[in-house]
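Course exercise 7: structure representation. Students receive a sequence record and must write out the corresponding structure in token form. The form below is the worked example handed out in class, using Interferon-related developmental regulator N-terminal domain-containing protein (460 residues). Read each field label carefully; the graders check that inputs and outputs are placed in the correct fields and that the protein name is recorded exactly as given.

STUDENT ID: A-19
EXERCISE PROTEIN: Interferon-related developmental regulator N-terminal domain-containing protein
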Amino acid sequence: MRDLRKKILLESGKTVSRKARSRPDSLGASPIASPAASRGGSRVNSRYASEEEDLSDSEYEDSLTNSVANSDDGNEPVHAVHWTEILADRVAELLDRKRSSAQGREKCLAAYTHIIRHHYADEQLQPQLYELIPAILKSVRAGSNTDETLSAVKALTMTILTTQDESHYDSIYPSLKGLCEDSDEASVKVEAIEAMGIVTMCGGGSGVAAEELLDFLVEIVESDGHSVAAGDNGPTVAAALKTWGFVASNLDDLHEQSDVALEAFTEQLDSTDVDVQVAAGTNIALIFEAARELEEETEEASDLQYDQHKLIQRMTALVRESSKSVSKKDRKHLHASFNSVLTSLEHGKGPGYSTARRMASNPHTGGTKINFGEEYREYGYREKIRIHNISMTIDTWSLSARVEILRSVLGAGLAIHYMENPLIKDILSAAQVEYVSKPGKGERDDEYTSSPRKNRGGKR
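STUDENT ANSWER:
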């Protein structure tokens, strides 16, 4: 009877929490012949992760590695399946296409992606990498439905970020570009564009390849998406703009691309899509930031063929716009973004810089009013990311562009990859970091600041 009750507990999934069971990779190490056991969870398709999701990840980790179901007398522990075992099963499923269906492959790809997003799995993937990438590419090129294709592109992007493999670029990039141009689904085009940026910068693309991708993305923006059969599709154009920013942030010299790109981005300031407007504005700020950096390095004046004063006037008008056709939330987002860009253009600052002033010292803690009358300081950079005990300041537009793409791809997995994945650490290496120790009772936070490594990326 006791063994029967234990079996029922296992089969009912009560050894893990309800939240953990909702995740696609928390279903146990199922046999290869039963793809249904790797059903996708509702969180897999989320583009951005909330702080609550980060918290639930720790619960999910505990449920996989530490949960124990006991029998009535408490003496018979039940084995908890480790994420590496589940990943091995999903990889085996992906490599065995003969016994799979389109629906089974889609669910398996979603579960595989979820696992490697929330765990750094380079060591686990390397032994079968040269079989795994071609297997995923088959679903990219010939997916039986949109869900399989989308899941395959996401799986491919995460695999490249995890393994830093640079030997498959020549086979991956053309497939993604073809998918972007030929697919009838805007959602597929968006994922393919983002993946092209990741594969080019992290999967073996050269500096020339990066410049060619920038040209391709500008064509999409200039044509309002018509160049990839996505005419006037906001998400496609926004994806092209954001990916342009990510790729450009890794180049040391944007001189060749700046003039054409500026014209295309300025035209998109009049878009009816708020995400397109914001992405265009931030890319404009990134171009002027790159020009300022080049001036500092060469001590020569920038030759950008653009009227910055006219541009500032246009953005000032956008900040003051109060169209009723735009939702209150979007209007607030638009105004905040363009205020940040305006501050950048006028004062030569990065994103989120506040010129509001505060007293550098607090006169109420001692001293006289006259001693503190002249001590005022600007609030400065307000955009930060907190990862465990690390606080990262987003103080350049190039860093902001990188964070935007990594948040999109990694979601709640950004923290674990930043801590364990050397590639992600390198992508964000230009950030100023503060190490904040958790204070004890009656103590203040101790902060340790590291100087940022000044570079715009690895492509020359």
